[in-house]
Amino acid sequence: MSQPDYPRIVTAPPGPLGKAIMDKDAQYSSTSYIKEYPLVVSHGRGAMLEDVDGNRFIDFMAGIAVSATGYAHPTVVEAVREAAGKFFSMCGTDFYYPSMSALCERLALSAPGDSKKRVFLSNSGTEAVEGAIKLVRNSTRRTDLIAFKGAFHGRSYGAMSLTCSKVKQRASFGPMLPGVHHVSFPDPYRTLTDGRSVTETVIGEIETLFLQKVSPDDVAAIFIEPLLGEGGYIIPPADFMPALRALCTKHGILLVCDEIQCGVGRSGKMWACEHWDVEPDVLLTAKGLGSGMPIGAIIAKESVMKWPAGSHGSTFGGSPVCCAAALATLDIVENELLTNINNVGERLIAGVRRLQEKHAVIGDVRGLGLFIGVEFVEDRATKKPAKALVGDLEQIALQRGLLLLGCGQSVLRIAPPLVLSDYDVDKGLEILDACLTELT
Ligand SMILES: Cc1ncc(COP(=O)(O)O)c(C=O)c1O
Questions:
Q1: Is the C or the N end of the chain the one with fewer CB within 10 Å?
Q2: Ligand 1 mean position to 163 CA, how many Å?
Q3: What is the pTM of this model?
């Protein structure tokens, strides 16, 4: 087999065509956009992205964990093309079409656990979270919500009120939704314990909250990312999610798992909750679900999703073109990619662990499937975060043909398209190694 034709840098990014687009963007686009680095995309194929100047990159970030089946997967492209040739939209809140009913059925049957499920389709992650807040209040007739420090659930008001990741995401936008309480996320690398396990420490913190601040009888739901995304790509200890499930059940609190970033196969199982045999009351998905087409879902136990007709809806949510993309994506991930995700993920984690032996700045490496966090520290003993490093790494990796993205305080999140190959892993690690050598 011939060698892939990437990575390839023909002109230091941004090249002249990219620069022209960036200049226009700087004049007219919202000042709130971050624009991590000067990547100006033209098109992609598999886990390779090409910019408008002809540079080709290996993608280790998938547009923030979105492009599940890679770029331009022929089956997804064909499904979208076929659906777009029929009709774009027919408000699924009010009318019927086959792909919407098929996707609701598919997601209801795919979600973990034996209980019968029902599904509401949204346009985005934050909209799924927003709907879930309404749903859990409607179902329990309780008001309060618990979420985790480090969590990112979105940017609309309810979701932003649950978010507790970076202060700039909340500053100047208050007041937030009342009745939201934040507790520590179980971080095996950083949680300070006094002889207890990480799980006992965090469950203890929630129990203390129940003693001091809020009665569990007033709590409608606990929202958790079972694998913490934006907050630092953290994998909780194996006993944590079962313990949280038990705590929720004991108090009649609903467990909402936000798998918007870690679901749809990324963790090596279709849903991250499956790693611990936990059945959430509500499961949220978006990002990878449509391979990049805007679609999300609230998947809830039938006993929970009983809100009356007209109490929640959406004009565009679950549009036929997005449903077609999601159905094709679920087929591909379930039938073709789960083995690859596990094999390539193991290769990638093992490779980063080898880099950890060489580069003292790597404090911790953790991951499940293709959800991998690499935490950088100034000193392994003090674990002081090496805050500037990830930003510098992103910039110089771009110049060498590798797309990276940070999260948390000093963590590199590796969340590539799920079609990543052994070649992509080995080449990407080679570039990462060279970048770390240059930087440290
Ligand atoms: C776990 C999680 N929940 C919710 C969201 C919000 O999704 P969206 O940006 O589609 O609104 C994100 C986005 O990064 C996320 O990672």
A1: N
A2: 10
A3: 0.98
